[in-house]
Q: What sequence folds into this?
């Protein structure tokens, strides 16, 4: 097994590298390349969780962990074919360079869309903070009533002496 890439290092435990990742490698190595052989993360989780349950191993594979393992495969080239994906079809081995390029283009578009949303969100937060700061610096109205009489009635502070 090749060295674990730094970005995946904190997300895949040593135990998972020893017990979970080999199950994925065996599954993908037995697959015929192509979208027709796609498997969803839900199916992967169910099958692997059954294996662990049958062997009385307390471990639950999640869709998030599947994504981390797939990312590890892509980063490390541990599986010779590229692991392609579709939100509806699942994951599959891809050998067609044009299809991989199409996938990369779609990922790049999604990344740009996400970055646009991040920038819009940052502008929104900055604007809200600027508005709050400006509001603090605005004129604060003075109280209308300043003197309390002994009977609890408050008199209006009147600087105008029309009496």
A:
């Amino acid at each position: 097994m090749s060295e674990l890439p730094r970005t995946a290092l904190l997300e895949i435990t040593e135990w998972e590298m020893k017990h979970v990742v080999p199950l994925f490698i065996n599954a993908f190595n037995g697959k015929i390349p192509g979208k027709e052989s796609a498997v969803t993360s839900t199916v992967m989780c169910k099958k692997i969780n059954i294996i662990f349950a049958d062997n009385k191993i307390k471990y639950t594979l999640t869709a998030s962990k599947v994504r981390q393992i797939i990312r590890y495969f892509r980063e490390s080239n541990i599986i010779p074919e590229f692991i392609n994906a579709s939100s509806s079809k699942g994951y599959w081995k891809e050998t067609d360079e044009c299809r991989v390029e199409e996938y990369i283009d779609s990922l790049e578009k999604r990344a740009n869309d996400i970055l646009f949303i991040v920038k819009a969100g940052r502008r929104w937060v900055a604007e809200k903070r600027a508005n709050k700061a400006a509001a603090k610096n605005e004129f604060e109205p003075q109280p209308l009533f300043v003197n309390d009489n002994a009977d609890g009635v408050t008199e209006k502070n009147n600087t105008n002496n029309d009496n």
The CA atoms of residues 75 and 123 lie 33 Å apart. The radius of gyration is 31 Å.
